[in-house]
Amino acid sequence: MWDPAPSLPVLAAPMAGGASTPELVVAAARAGGAGFLAGGYKTAESLADQVGAVRRAGVPFGVNVFAPNPVPVDRREYRRYAEAVGDLASELGVELDVSHPTEDDDAWDDKIDLLLSDPVPMVSFTFGIPDRKVVSALRRAGSRVAQTVTSAEEACRAATAGADVLVVQGSEAGGHSATLTPRRPARPERLADLVGRLRSLGLPIIAAGGLATPGAVAEVVRAGARAAMVGTVLLRTEESGASAVHREALASPRFTETTVTRAFTGRPARALRNGFIDRFDRGAPHGYPALHHLTSPLRKAAAAEGEAEAVHLWAGTGYREARAESAERTLRRLGSGLRGGGQRT
């Protein structure tokens, strides 16, 4: 099983929606670290193809899965919001299906079946904590199990469920918050402080969220993390699958801040503040994955047209550190502040 403390303790985070690629995961391993494939929003068949591609490279890796933890949407609020965003969709030539909310489990059973029949070194979960039977089955199959948490209470629940590793996510992370209570997320806390508090549980910790400089990585490792996990800072790398509009926005002076919004998916997520957020955030209801499915066609159309003001530009607070270079160079630079870790570039 994979040790969560590789020679370069800087890991590539799973970024659902296309940004995480097999090439990015392999590059992270060749830098001395490791990476995670993102199972979210994929079919089990598509995930299996990516697992096969990384496995052929013979490197350590993990797979992240969205555990079911739905946020039901009020039907009246859903219709109201669908009508509001429908106007923008029409401007982009997209017709949204507003008849009823789609509330699925992201092919949960199929993905667990895949990971039990074709085990990978590590499986991590986000959004929810799986049943202890699932955790035990994965461990028997030979996988280590990691759980993403955002608070001490969540970390205790993960430990009770049998997790081998805690992925401790701070509030400065880009994309969706991993909070288990999306209607009432935890109070923000410095990531290094949270890592330090959770050491008492005795589980290896991977720290994630807003880590974009050598100093930030070194701080969480000094606080007790076995490794740091980074995502946003890899979005502009050569191996990233992020869209052109997303890559450009991260470097554009047009976007000057990040904010947490549920306007795109009905679940809190940090993104570059843009026109869609300004227009719809205040009226967006809670409701995941219903709002994700509702706005997905609109967002895809906007990305295809290069219209950044209507795209979910997920980004952590350190987004300005994302560079157009190889992932290996980025990861080694981030590890350069650690004694014996990485090469200065």
UniProtKB/TrEMBL annotation:
UniProt KW keywords: Detoxification, Flavoprotein, FMN, Monooxygenase, Oxidoreductase
Domain of life (superkingdom): Bacteria
Pfam family, one: NMO
Gene Ontology MF term list: monooxygenase activity
UniProt cross-references to PANTHER family, sorted A to Z: NITRONATE MONOOXYGENASE-RELATED
Family per record: Belongs to the nitronate monooxygenase family. NMO class I subfamily.
InterPro entries: Aldolase_TIM, NMO
Name of the protein described by the UniProt record: Propionate 3-nitronate monooxygenase
Keyword rRNA-binding: no
Required co-factors: FMN
The reaction(s) this protein catalyses: 3 propionate 3-nitronate + 3 O2 + H2O = 3 3-oxopropanoate + 2 nitrate + nitrite + H2O2 + 3 H(+)
